[in-house]
Amino acid sequence: MRYHDEAEERSTTIRIVVSDQGPGIPDVCKAVEPGYSGGRGLGLGLSAVRNLMGCLSIESRPGRTEVTTSMTRRR
């Protein structure tokens, strides 16, 4: 499953890529909503990243999840 939310490209961008080899995220669209947790967490992590950063992309399947996020300096 894939979630992608892209902002308009500008000049100065920082990009962060995080991946793991866990069980995957069963419902990626729910996972970016505030309060959703697949475990014991508060369910605020991915929704906070989505709100703070300009772009968020999540690709997840059993054995591999990759989250890519970026923020472009506003001018």
What does this protein structure show overall?
This protein has 75 residues and is an alpha+beta fold. It contains 2 helices and 4 strands; from the N terminus they run ββααββ. A 4-stranded antiparallel beta sheet has the order 1-3-4-2, covered by helices on one side. Strand 3 and strand 4 form a beta hairpin. The termini are far apart. 13% of the residues are buried.
Mean pLDDT, rounded to whole units?
86
- Percent of residues in beta strands: 35-45%
Helix content estimate: 10-25%
User: What value does the Rg take, in angstroms?
Assistant: 13 Å
Main beta sheet: 4 strands, antiparallel
Largest sheet, order of strands side by side? 1-3-4-2
Number of helices: 2
Residue windows where pLDDT falls under 50 for at least 5 positions:
none
Label the overall shape. Answer: globular
N-to-C SSE series? EEHHEE
Structural class designation: alpha+beta
Q: How many angstroms separate the termini?
A: 34 Å
What's the total number of strands?
Answer: 4
Write a brief caption for the model.
The protein is 16% helix and 37% strand. It has helices at 28-31, 45-52; strands at 2-5, 13-20, 55-61, 64-72.
